[in-house]
Write a structure and sequence with these properties.
Elements (H helix, E strand, L loop, with lengths): L1 H20 L3 H14 L2 H12 L2 H27 L7 H9 L1 H37 L7 H16 L3 H26 L17 H18 L6 H12 L3 H30 L2 H10 L3 H8 L3 H36 L6 H22 L3 H27 L10 H22 L1
Helix pairs in contact: 2-8, 2-11, 2-14, 3-9, 3-11, 3-12, 4-9, 4-10, 4-11, 4-16, 4-17, 5-6, 6-7, 6-14, 6-15, 6-16, 7-14, 7-15, 8-11, 8-14, 9-16, 9-17, 10-11, 13-14, 14-15, 16-17
Amino acid sequence: MNDQANSVNKRYVEATPATLSSWNRQDTTWMLGLFGTAIGAGTLFLPINAGLGGFWPLLILALLAFPMTFYAHRGLTRFVLSGREGADITEVVEEHFGIKAGALITLLYFFAIFPILLIYSVALTNTVGSFLEHQLHITPPPRAVLSLVLILGLLAVVRCGEQLIVKAMSLMVYPFIVALLFLAVYLVPHWNGGILTTASSVPAPSALLHTMWLAIPVMVFSFNHSPIISAFAVDQKRRYGAHAEERSSQILSRAHLLMVVMVLFFVFSCVLTLSPAQLAEAKAQNLSILSYLANHFSNPTIAFAAPLIAFVAISKSFLGHYIGASEGLKGLIVKSGKRPSAKALDRMTAAFMLVVCWIVATLNPSILGMIETLGGPVIAAILFLMPMYAIRKVPAMARYRGQASNVFVTAVGLVAITALIYSLTA
């Protein structure tokens, strides 16, 4: 019996590297799903916030974008992979740190992701309302009605299941990439170089560091796809077993390379087109850069395409983040001692998400303010610091100790969190 089991295990181990060497459709689906989760409201507001900081901070942040996001998401993926087979992030936390710490981190995980759903609810309502008013010349329905219809529509898609959500998001990425690239190229003749006026002189080191310090939380949020990392890691472990970390890193590196190249080209194209005063106006109007561009240009193609691109981007990111937020909320409910059925748990989660997202979307708080004070910094704690702490303390992650990237990821996480403290006390 043992010989037979060893033979089976040997065949599995020998077969896995062959499977690992060939990129398959499922890997592409996950790569695009990760891209789709990250590219949403944060990306559409990044040109506004990054552009307002001036040329040199934007250039430095652009150079840091890939290592800052890739190493952090790889660390979180490794953390989930270090747990038992099929365990999601909330269960891995409990496995490594105990029940009390597990409950605390699960709470933090939920509050790292749930505010993003609120941000997307506000952004989606503003985008559709602006489109109806400025492009279709239709008086939008009352904000409470519009936000309710939009959120109900997205939750109807959620009911189709996690795998269908990932597939739908990956399919939506193709036209989105083409549209984003088209818009960035279209803006090239309109570049006026207004931001380059700040490049003629290098700012004082203190001013440069201060600007970057406050901009990093927005950058973290703009490239964040941590809500789907748990589901991603669980699926990779199921497919590739002991080789899941290697394949996960390959998928992550390609996804981040794609998003960094696309997003930075788009960001620089927008920033070089609009003046600092116009970027400030977009921030004051609480609109994404696409909605502002649609109102700014008289070209009917851009006027219609830009809001539609924003709608697709925000919608697919909402779906990806719902997976993580619902995972966290369900973990909190279960850890509270209640044991509802799976169907009842899904209904409770959906009802809670609907009510809170609807209320916040109706109230219309500042999106960039929410990103700066809620989204980026809280995400930093769960995405940057927790996996690095686990590498130091958890035996299952000991093989990752001593890497220079660990120090870099920890530093970025601390910068983002201290920026939150400053924003709340300034």
